[in-house]
Every structure is written in structure tokens, then in C-alpha cells.
Amino acid sequence: MSGVRLYDLSQTFGHNAPLWPYFPDVKIERFHYHAKSGVLSQQITTFMHCTTHADSPAHVIEGAPYTDEIPLDSYYGTGVVVDIPKGKWEVITPDDLEKAEPKIETGDIVIIRTGWHRYYSDSRQYFAYSPGLYREAGEWFVERKVKAVGVDHQALDHPLATAIGPHGTGPLLPDVCEEYRAETGREVIEDFPEWEPCHRLLLGNGIMGWENVGGDIDKVVGRRVIIAGFPIRWERGDGSIVRLVAIVDE
Prior knowledge:
Helix content: 10-25%
Low-confidence stretches: none
Structural class: alpha/beta
């Protein structure tokens, strides 16, 4: 391991972890603690779609593979960390991906830094106003046969293509949809008519995805690295919190 350095691309997990708008709170309770038992044992109640995590195909596609059915190799390989700066509600386009450096090659793991990881917090700014991917980017990834995709914001899809907008059980945040109309003069459903198309394109084609990437991502942006982000071997799991790592030969 001489000359090899590991960079943590994960956001931290714990009490008060930022949560998607319809998730119940994380609970961490000490069952044993030192003054009582001489040891520390903690019990955790959490959604697996919390902090930096991997989605499994079964999360969005009925009958698709669960976490324990996905080969570990799907979460490990050569990758690029590309810089695609984006602001509020902007869309990551195929043109952005074509121009990204280092060049995205067939079989690559692609980690995208928009800069939104800096806002990671219990806030509407992070969850409701982030930039994101949509159908066209998903189709581009499928055509290029990439291996996996990680993003430094709330989901593999633009927030207004999720239940935050008028999709699925949404809109979870109707006032955000009204704000979009006021700012753009258009309805959310006009610009984002499909529910999580990038999720479905990626996961439906065997391309794994990580959400809420962060940590030391700024230290490896613009580099070709080895990426590893393994899930818990959860039987019939729909996703998993991961420790996402960039491995660099210095």
C-alpha cells in the first residue's frame, strides 16, 4: 500500500443526519453504556437511504435485483471525479458530461461534483433546490456503458423529478413547486414530466448509483481514481448506507 492514499467521499452518519423530506428521524440509543455495563452497545433505527448511500434496482423497479443480489464488482472500479458546477435547479446535461475532464470512458465509475455537497444539511436549499440529472443524462450514461454514477446532491434525479415535485406521493413541498412557477413562468410538470427517469435508466441497466456524495471530494476532483463504495449484504435490500472511498496512487 506504499504510495496509495484513501480519500473518504462519504457524508457522516449520526444523530440529526440530514433526511429526505418524508423520512422519519434516525434513532440511535445506547442499550449498554460504560457506567451501566462496562461496554458500549448502540441500537440504530434508520432508513438505508440516508447520508451517502447506494440505491439498488429494486428501490425503483418492481422485480429488479435487491442489494444482496448485486455483484460486489458493481461497486468497485476505475473512475473519474468530474467537476460540473451547477446552481439552483440547474440540469446536468449530456453536453456537460461530454466536456467533463478527465474524459468519461466506457466502463468508468463517474462521480459528479456540482458543488452542492457544501450545502449538505437539514435544509430546503440542499434537498429542494439542488441541481440534478434527468432523462437525457441517464440515456447518455446508458449509451456510454458506464459502470456506476455518484452525485454530490440529494438524488440520482433532479429534485423536481422526485416526490418533492408532483410525482409519486408528491408534491411533498407544494410551495417549492409554486416558487418554481414564479421564477420560471412554467409548471414543474412541463419541464420535469417524468418521475425519476434517471434512477430507472441507470438502475434498470445495471448501472449502480450513489447519492449524497461529499467528504473529501474536493481533493480528488479532476482526477482518475479507483472508487469503492460497498453496501451492507442486506437480503432483499432496496439500498444501503455506504463508505465511499477514492483510492489514489500518489
